[in-house]
């Protein structure tokens, strides 16, 4: 069937496009760099025409509060309208585990707005909330670095590799809409401080990781379970240690 992947040139999008094409589907990789823009509407109607499924794994170019909100609201509004007009049978969107508890952040308020718009639409949907990706641990550490010190809380995290996210999103895209939210997480639960410490050790990074419960995660003060699934979740298989070994120089 024809499947459109919005954000098809990004980290998850590229892997997802490849996965679906290998399964024999007609996949349109959509992103501004490929001439299809869900914010301006450029090329959107033509791309979605005849599609049965649209998967949105796009991300905002700016995380400034107003800019990120405008991106997700405008993009989602345009997508859902084009899908309704084209008779799309399933809208799949990638979101973040714990979004509704992270609303201190403008980014997560924007993701919540996106989710609410999807729920209110007449297009059948599946929202896939994933935990943080292995690939972004370095940027988490960088965000919380002061000199040679990285301050991290011990709040639990259950990170996942992008390959496992793409594989799961492909499965959900090919299944019937759940008209609800599904959670997706990695196989190991650990403290955020421990995760960053393990990453630093593997990368021979000399910065010191200090456990600080008042340290914020992208501006958000966490409780112990803010970043992990609270109920049933699909659990991926790739362990952090195996990924570290595979990607270390």
Instruction: Kindly report how far apart the N and C termini lie.
Output: 40 Å
Assess the beta-strand content as a share of residues: 15-25%
> Which structural class best describes the helix and strand composition?
alpha/beta
Name the strands of the widest sheet in spatial order: 2-1-3-4-5-9-12
Unreliable runs, pLDDT <50, ≥5 residues?
none
In round numbers, the mean pLDDT is: 96
Helix share of residues? Answer: 25-40%
Q: For the CA atoms, what is the radius of gyration?
A: 18 Å
Number of helical segments with 4 or more residues: 8
Explain this structure.
This is NAD(P)H-binding protein. Pfam families: NAD_binding_10. InterPro entries: NAD(P)-bd_dom, NAD(P)-bd_dom_sf, NmrA-like_oxidored. By secondary structure, this protein is of the alpha/beta class. About 35% of the residues lie in helices and about 20% in strands. The chain contains eight helices and twelve strands. A seven-stranded parallel beta sheet has the order 2-1-3-4-5-9-12, with helices on both faces. The longest helix is centred in the N-terminal third of the chain and has 22 residues. The model has no long low-confidence stretch (mean pLDDT about 95).
